[in-house]
């Protein structure tokens, strides 16, 4: 990390546009004051292929590219460690209900290719449809609006469902479910590019695929309104909800929402996806769980 600080101060003069921004990453559990490089979205090859760079500059970019890989690995280890703390807090928090700690024990993450080998397992797929948020309530704001639903069984979950043998693919089955449950317009249909991660429950022999679709705030409101006309509205789907991501003191807001009952591993899917999309960092998630 110290090395990276050095790199930043030395090289930022050489290629100022390469180092877009550096940040304290306390949310990843690194010590305050630690600086890491935040590498721009453009791939390094983009810079290496630029004709106006001299060989020294290209060398610098190659070195930073290698450091970037190392930094990512270190940061990922920290994220994974912190994620374990989140899982542990979820398991041990008494206010979150026995059902929830069982859900965490029963589900584990599985690689997509690995999951294809479990061919006697049922498949289900659910979607995290969300937008960045530009609305605020008094002085409170949240970074995102996320679509979840109150189900017929009193549990909260994401729209989606079991994949049928008649569905041409997982994504086709998911879009069929989204049509039935939330009347999703086909222009928002999920594609393989929206795939995020998969979980498995070996006891119940089911694989849960999870997809993420970002839309604009206006589009999300349109999707929510259209859901009222869905086939399943009022029967399987009792209402569309948005998790209130607010941090309201004392102890109100998202931590109250966390005390609901969530179907399958949907709460894990919610927290993990918010963490990966940087909607809420792991430290904040831990704080919310601890204040349940
Ligand atoms: O949002 C969810 N996240 C993870 N797992 C979920 C979610 N919703 C349901 N489930 C589990 C529960 C079941 O084992 C299967 C399928 O349930 P469901 O979505 O109710 O399926 P149908 O609509 O009946 O096809 O996934």
Automatic annotation (TrEMBL):
Its main location: nucleus. Its cofactor is Co(2+). InterPro entries: NUDIX_hydrolase-like_dom_sf, NUDIX_hydrolase_dom, NudT16. It is found in: Nucleus, Nucleolus; Nucleus, Nucleoplasm. GO terms for biological process: mRNA catabolic process; nucleotide metabolic process; sno(s)RNA catabolic process. It comes from Brachionus calyciflorus. Belongs to the Nudix hydrolase family. NUDT16 subfamily. This is U8 snoRNA-decapping enzyme. Residues 120-271 form the Nudix hydrolase domain. Keywords: Nucleotide metabolism, Nucleus, RNA-binding. Its EC number is 3.6.1.64. It catalyses: IDP + H2O = IMP + phosphate + H(+); a 5'-end (N(7)-methyl 5'-triphosphoguanosine)-ribonucleoside in mRNA + H2O = N(7)-methyl-GDP + a 5'-end phospho-ribonucleoside in mRNA + 2 H(+); dIDP + H2O = dIMP + phosphate + H(+). GO terms for molecular function: 5'-(N(7)-methylguanosine 5'-triphospho)-[mRNA] hydrolase activity; IDP phosphatase activity; phosphodiesterase decapping endonuclease activity; snoRNA binding. Pfam families: Nudt16-like. It comes from the Eukaryota.
């Amino acid at each position: 990390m110290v090395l990276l600080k050095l790199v930043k101060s030395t090289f930022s003069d050489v290629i100022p546009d390469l180092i877009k921004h550096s940040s304290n990453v306390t949310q990843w559990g690194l010590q305050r004051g630690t600086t890491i490089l935040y590498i721009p979205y453009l791939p390094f090859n983009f810079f290496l292929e630029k004709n106006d760079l001299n060989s020294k500059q290209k060398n610098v970019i190659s070195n930073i590219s290698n450091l970037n890989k190392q930094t990512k690995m270190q940061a990922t280890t920290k994220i994974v460690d912190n994620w374990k703390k989140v899982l542990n807090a979820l398991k041990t928090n008494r206010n979150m209900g026995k059902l929830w700690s069982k859900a965490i024990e029963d589900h584990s993450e599985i690689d997509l290719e690995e999951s294809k080998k479990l061919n006697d397992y049922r498949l289900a797929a659910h979607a995290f449809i969300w937008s960045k948020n530009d609305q605020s309530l008094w002085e409170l704001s949240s970074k995102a609006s996320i679509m979840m639903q109150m189900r017929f069984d009193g549990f909260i979950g994401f729209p989606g469902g079991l994949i049928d043998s008649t569905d041409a693919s997982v994504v086709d089955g998911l879009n069929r479910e989204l049509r039935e449950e939330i009347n999703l317009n086909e222009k928002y249909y999920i594609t393989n590019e929206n795939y995020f991660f998969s979980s498995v429950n070996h006891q119940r022999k089911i694989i849960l695929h999870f997809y993420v679709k970002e839309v604009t705030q206006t589009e999300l409101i349109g999707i929510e309104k259209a859901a009222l006309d869905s086939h399943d509205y009022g029967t399987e789907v009792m209402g569309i909800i948005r998790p209130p991501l607010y941090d309201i003191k004392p102890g109100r807001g998202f931590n109250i929402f966390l005390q609901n009952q969530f179907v399958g591993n949907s709460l894990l899917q919610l927290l993990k996806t918010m963490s990966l999309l940087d909607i809420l960092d792991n430290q904040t998630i831990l704080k919310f769980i601890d204040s349940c």
